[in-house]
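To make this tangible, this section ends with a sequence with its structure tokens:
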Amino acid sequence: MDDLFLSKINLLYVEDEESIRNILAKRLSKKVNTLYTAENGEDGYNKFLENSPDMILTDVTMPKLNGIEMTKKIREYNRDIPIIILSANDESNYLLSAIENEVSGYIMKPLDKDKLYDVLEKNAKAICLEKINLAQQQQIKKQQVLLQNIINSERNMTFLTDFYSLKFANNSFLDFFGIQKTSEFKNDVITIFEKHEKFLDRDIVKDEFCAMKFFNEIEKLDETKRVVLIKDRNSNIKSFYISLSKLDNNLFLVSLTDITKMTLEKIDTEQKAYYDGLTGIYNRNKFQEVFEYEVKRVHRYKYPLSIAILDIDHFKNFNDQHGHLIGDEVLILIAKKIQEKIRETDTFARWGGEEFILLFFECTKEDAKNKADFLRKEIEKTYHETAGRITVSIGISQYQENDSMDDLFKKADDALYRAKENGRNRVEI
């Protein structure tokens, strides 16, 4: 089970045996938002008062206060917080007391980690949904007051809509679209969201568009994904964080916060993280990410997957004879040539130095060799005005079950070495 809700939870873990506590705490800390630990029942009770966690996981047999005694004291302050008891097989006599104190789970030791995480996630889901429900109830109570004050007071674009017609909008919205009043807005509201594969638009609803479905789909998303693109009156596209509040099944209060600057900064960061600064193609980091994704698909769908390593022949001579600027021009020229000739489904990256790497989707090593040979011939036609004729040597390998990136790369690298040894400007498997 994915830890979708558990990652949002603050958990208190109480265990008196230090070695056990350290091992499980290390695992739990990777799954929850914040983890607090306590070494006995009394410490656990104090940590509960101090930190107000969302959920408690506790051993039974502990000094000062055992797990049941601690639970009983906590229940005097909070009747609803989920408390999950961990108990050894010979402690089943605690079960009745645990039930009486309304624990949310009673798990026997030795621990089945999957079962434990499943129990934690289910309780975390209930907590998160309760918070959402409470927040929505509070929001609805405030709607009338909000609607009377937000029309012109917010810098955010705020409006009321069924995603077809515009019921009202504040000045920020009107100014953005260059209109004087809501009645001048003639299009369906849902159409203001520009279509883009990385941002929200009406296509998030797979079937016929429905405002309620649109709302529900957005509610499922992590907050970092709730971003839309909108074109202003001057046709400039800007990005906004979208926040929705449901007034009824057909009417929604929408707030749009301009995050264009943040989005551009994020794109710039991703560009630096995933793209080679010289050639503009993918770098090693991005290639490895794509490779891991494609291997998962290979395991599921059983299609062939191959890679090719390309190395520019005698590249050192370009640098030694003409300088590194010419060497860089050669790299850029080769990268552009290959990018123009490969399929959209293939992944092309600079591996480092004068080496490039290609991932051939749904391609056996024999097919990959044919494609690579085509590229080799195209590159052979390439001529740099200073460096002269350019050729490459290419090594091919096909993914076999359980191959790591290193395994697959080594096989291709060995083939590349043979291509060099056999005279260069050739392809080897």
